[in-house]
Amino acid sequence: MGNIQVGILMGSDSDLPVMQRAASVLREFGIEYFMTVASAHRTPDRVIELAKRAENEGWKILIAGAGMAAHLAGFIAAHTVLPVIGVPMDSSPLGGLDALLSTVQMPGGVPVATMGLGSAGAKNAGLFAVEILALQDPELKQKLKDYREEQRKLIEEKAAALSQQ
């Protein structure tokens, strides 16, 4: 591992298929990341150690995904001044509403940027991390612009194909 920029934490390995979406985005943009499982409730000391490690090693951003009302993102944010991006999992009997509310309803003074539920939220967490890093990196900013242009072209192609049917 070279220069880790982003840490990705998830409350359970069952969250891995979703959180891989964030990792995939970071890989696409050439951003070094570290990914692990750490539970705010079952391994709180591990979470605190990871938050301290992130600061000590110069990581820039932490992405935290958890389901149910397991408030991993908020717990991490309470132990670091690094930006924390929360990804609520949609895996609970409540369809993720519990995870969404526990992530988005932070008390004033301890911010967590909350993405949407599940896979789309994880992908957006990766992209949001890239956007934050691009503030200080013109090359990365250009890669983001190119990415957005590719997205635009794909939609135009799909629209053209649909109009020909």
Automatic annotation (TrEMBL):
Any coiled-coil regions, as ranges: 137-164
Gene Ontology molecular function: any one: 5-(carboxyamino)imidazole ribonucleotide mutase activity
Protein name: N5-carboxyaminoimidazole ribonucleotide mutase
Cross-referenced Gene3D superfamilies: 3.40.50.1970
Annotated InterPro entries: PurE_ClassI (IPR033747), PurE_dom (IPR000031), PurE_prokaryotes (IPR024694)
EC number: 5.4.99.18
Domain named PurE: residues: 4-155
Pfam families attached to this UniProt entry: AIRC (PF00731)
A GO BP annotation: 'de novo' IMP biosynthetic process
Organism: Desulfomonile tiedjei (strain ATCC 49306 / DSM 6799 / DCB-1)
